[in-house]
Amino acid sequence: MPKNSLFQRIILPGLVMQSVLVGGGYATGREMVEFFLSNGPLGGLFGLLTTMVLISLISAIGFEFARLARSYDYRSFFRALLGRGWFLFELGYFPMVLLVLAVLGAASGELVATHFGIPAAYGTIGLMLLVGILVFWGSGVIERVLAGWSFVLYATYGVLIVLYLARFGDALMPNFSADALNGNWLRGSLQYLGYNVVCATIILFCVRHMESRRDALTAGLLCGPLAMTPALLMFLGMAASYPQIVAAPVPSDYMIQALDMGWMEVIFYLVVFGTFVETGTALIHAINERISQAWSERGRTLPRWLRPVVAAIALFIAIVLASRFGLIDLIARGYGTLTWYFIAIFVVPTLTLGVWRIFRARADTT
Question: Hey, what's the torsion of the CAs at 232, 55, 93, 32, to 10 degrees?
Fold first, then answer.
């Protein structure tokens, strides 16, 4: 692939964001229930589409700000955006990483035990090993793996929802038409946005490919549709089984079991396990890039062997958390707690200070 190709500059960031977001954002379907479908099919759809638009807007501004500041990791980004207050992001980011990794650890163990008859511990260990291998090789390999797996995920979710709606889709439009829009849909949208839009700061290593303002803005605007299209597909399938599916601990399980297609179950859960690896890799890679930048400022290079060590430590702590709390509690309580914090220290500053500094930089160059 040529350096700074159109794919790298425009398409890659959205694919990588989708890979980061999916594991903690909608792979199990429980997140879709907590933040969207709990407000009804119509309210959930409004909330989901609003989230998609806001992710695009914030990503576009964030990418252009990062390009101008040459900030390719979250530490340098927030130092440029918040000045001495940059550390406020890390106060929320580290708990979020542990929370999402705990969700991934719990879900991966349960997945392999339930669907492949393998002890849960092996699923968690497999997750740790694959994440460690990927973070060892760094940004280039991670970009290629995450982008490639995104196409696999699009295809899998597309086939799943087509099959599901072909069998159960008769209830989809009646469920939408019978639902009354309630005022909680916007709150659910903002809550989901708060912790998921942080993915824009996790994938800043992709910004180094961007060569112009047009690149940054276009790539950012595409992030919403590229990242959230599989979520939209899943939501439509879930809406066809509303309200029964709301009570399902893992809604994706509900849909797969309803289809009763053995081959689809195997493919879907292999792909879902891959998304867990993707999300865990990206979260920890962002930490490694932050550490690498700090070492670089001291004239040193981060040893490659230290990258999987960081991954192992983070995953171990997360697994301890996962063993003490259930999947539903982790998602409902943990995500809801952090979301308003990230809106305050990332979304609001980006949409105000970020926009102002972008326009000031443009004025200075004209």
Answer: -20
The answer as to whether 1 is a domain residue is no
Q: Is residue 102 part of a domain?
A: yes
Tell me the two tokens of residue 186. Answer: 């916007």
Q: Is the dihedral of CA 215, 150, 142, 193 positive or negative?
A: positive
Q: Is residue 238 part of a domain?
A: yes
Q: Where do the DSSP E strands lie in the chain?
A: none
Alpha carbon of 139 to those of 77, 195, 302, 335: distances in Å? 17, 23, 13, 27
Residue 360 lies in a domain: no
Range of 30's domain? 9-355
CA dist., res. 349 & res. 326, Å (int): 34
CATH number of the domain residue 321 falls in = 1.20.1740.10
Over residues 33-55, the pLDDT tens digits come to 988 998 899 999 999 999 999 99
CA–CA distance, 110 with 106 (Å, rounded to integer): 6
Model confidence pLDDT, tens digit, residues 306-316: 888 888 888 88
CB atoms under 10 Å from CB of 113, counted, come to 16
